[in-house]
Design brief:
By secondary structure, the protein is of the alpha/beta class. 36% of the residues lie in helices and 19% in strands.
Length: 518
Amino acid sequence: MAKIQRAILSVTDKTGLVEFARTLSQLQIELISTGGTAQLLRDAGVPVKDISEFTGFPEMLDGRVKTLHPKVHGGILHQRENPAHRAAVEEHGIEPIDMVVVNLYAFEKTRSRPNVVFEELIENIDIGGPSMMRSAAKNFRDVAVVTSPGEYPAIAEELMGSGGELSLATKWRLAQQAFRTTAAYDAAIASTLEQISANNHFRLGEESDFPPVLRPSFRKVMDLRYGENPHQRAALYSDGSGQGVAGGRQIQGKQLSYNNITDLEAAWDLAQEFEEPVCAIIKHSNPCGTAVAPSLVEAYKKALDSDPVSAFGGVIGVNRTVDGETAEEMAKLFLEVIAAPAFDEAAKAKLAGKPNLRLVELTPAPQKWLLRSISGGALLQDADLRRLREEDLKIVTRRQPREDEKRSLGFAWKVVKHVKSNAIVYARDGQTVGIGAGQMSRVDSCRVGAMKAVLPLEGTVVASDAFFPFPDGVEEVAKAGATAIIQPGGSVRDQQIIEAANRLNLAMIFTGVRHFRH
């Protein structure tokens, strides 16, 4: 190990930088910096040399050229044990740079701003920062590259403990992190620019079709105890947005498991379908009870009444802050997870007596695409965000649905979208009554949904995620007590299906929209 003599600091995120720079200065490390970073350090009383003084060349082109200079990259890239390298830098008066502290222009933050213009986006593509990161990471044996403010405390502690040296293991870890950072940064730029067409004068929002190269970038949040089964390993990754299930804030309970997280996603997605207070209870990625009501506690009670047996050990998703009254009711049942936008203090106090119960606060994450891995590749599709519109509805039977049936049909249609295909949902008055999920034939889903019902089926309505291929499914739900059906239509036997509904005095609506979920 060799003592660090000189460091270059150039950061966008200045969190913790002054304190870190003071530590470097105390160790007699010469500090070189650029623009706003140099001014920040100077204002804080930390000795610093401007990059232009170091290179003998001024910053130019509105800051586009600052560190792109042989004195910078030669100082970083030359191998200290290579005689030819040493001779070359001595000949050209290049001084070694032993540490690079750099983070990048906030391209992704700029991209996410509303009404951002193309020129601003381009100016927030960092050139000097990634170049220094890559140079330092390539020469990691001689140069340390620090890319995250979160690293400052540990690096400072190691430097102070060793008199200004860093271990090879630390430098290697930092180099790996640097390459991950530049890879994710370039992927974000490439993915964004691929969505902008020159034919539309580089206007943002004029997005093309699916990207020609898919570049997902996720950072590991934590290892999980195991995957779907104990013999499978698993980990949770985040896209860094801090939103959605991966960005949730767990405020109580045991560590989430793989299966908890998949059920949590299903519960949260279903809860986001509704404007009114809703409670969705999930088991094995399927809703076993869902209900809406004027208050959250009523919605929970109705959802639980739908199938209290299956709800045992379930995962709950709601779209309102959990209050004390609702928490008191939930505490009566063994649950794995409750997901909500927030929990008030009364709710936290009520649920504190169940220390293993996981409470997770979530914020919605807009989804554009859904990614699914397959052997040798991946599948990408649009997220199923299609909401039912009045113009989608086509009443195809002689009997018109009553207003109460229409409301129940609309509710059932939102739920069936989140049930594994083939899916059938019996519902009434904003409450699921029976759910048939994941059967190989639709008529069996009709039978399973009726079999699962705890509440009376008489007067329910039925939602089907895809068309009825034969009249037998319609006959089955009518036999169970249903009075109206909502389904996509589109079967070659649609006329037979409609005739069966007319014969059984059912009202039927076609939506023209299918909601398979595999």
